[in-house]
Amino acid sequence: MKPNSKLVQLIKRGALVGAVPAAVYAAFCVFVGLSQRNLLYFPTHHAADPAMLPWTVNGETIGFHRPVPSPQTIWFMMHGNGGQASDRTYALPRMAPTDALYVPEYPGYGRRDGQPSLATINTAALAAYQALRREFPGKPIGILGESIGSGPASFLASASPAPDKIILVVPFDTLADVAARHFPFLPVRLMLRDRWDNIAALRNYPGPIDIYGALDDEIINFAHAKNLSARIPAARFTAIEGGHNSWSASPQVKISR
User: Helix 222-231 and helix 175-182: axis angle, to 10°?
Assistant: First the structure.
C-alpha cells in the first residue's frame, strides 16, 4: 500500500514540533545540572563583623568566634548557604552570655580557599569540630545547624566523641526532597550531587535533638522540618512564627543545653 504523502508530511511536521520543546527541556536540564552549585551556594567575601573574632588553628583562620572566659557550653554553628561565618552574630541573642560560639568558614566563603560542596563542607566541619574537642577537653560542645547547615550539622552526629546536643533551625529532612519541591518539573533526584540526608544522619544519634520549623518558611517548607522530627523519635519539635530568615528573632528558639 502506498503511504498517503500528506499524512507522512503531517507526521514529520508533528515530530519536528514535538522535538523542539523536548530539546529545550533537555538543554535546561543540562544547564541546571552543570550549574546547580551556583544555584545552591551564595558565599560573600566582605570584611568581617568586628563582633566576631577570627578563629585560628595552626596558623590558619578556619572561621570566626565569640569567645568567653571559661565557657559553660561551646556552640558550633553550621550556617546557611548565604553570607559567611562572621555574619552569624544574630545567633548570639538566643544564647547564654556564658556560652561561646564558634562558626567554621565553608570552603569558598569569606576568605577561605576552595569550592563549596557536600564533601568539602563536611570535611571542614569535622576538622573544625575535632579542633574544638582538642581545645576544650571535657567541655560540652553542642551543634547548631541552620538551613542548609543542618546537613553538615547532622553529619557531625556520627563524630567521635558525639556532640552533646544538636539544635536544628529551619532544617530539611533530605536536600533532594527540598529540591524536588522547588523544581517539580525536573528530575532533580537524579541530578542532585550534594545529597545531604538528615534523617539517615541522625538516626543513631544518642543525644538530645531540638528542631525548630518556621511556619511561613518560603525557602525550606515547614513540612520538611516537621517530617524530620517525625522520623527522629528522640527529637523535640517546636513550630515558630515567621519565615526562613527570621528565626533568630523568635524567643521560642533557645540555644542552650
Answer: 150
Q: Which three cell numbers stand for residue 130?
A: 575535632
Per-residue pLDDT of 136-194, as tens digits, reads 999 999 999 999 999 999 999 999 999 999 999 999 999 999 999 988 888 888 889 99
C-alpha distances in Å from residue 218, one per residue of 88, 171, 246: 20, 12, 11
Question: How much is the pLDDT for 257?
Answer: 86
Cα–Cα distance for residue pair 199/194, rounded to 1 Å = 15
Q: What's the maximum distance between 2 C-alpha atoms anywhere in the chain?
A: 94
165, burial (CB in 10 Å: exposed 0-12, middle 13-18, buried 19+): buried
Q: Which of 129, 198, 192 is nearest to 169 (CA)?
A: 198
Q: How far apart are the first and last CA of the chain?
A: 83
Strand 74-78 with 100-104, pairing: parallel
* Interatomic CA distance for residues 247 and 257, integer angstroms: 18
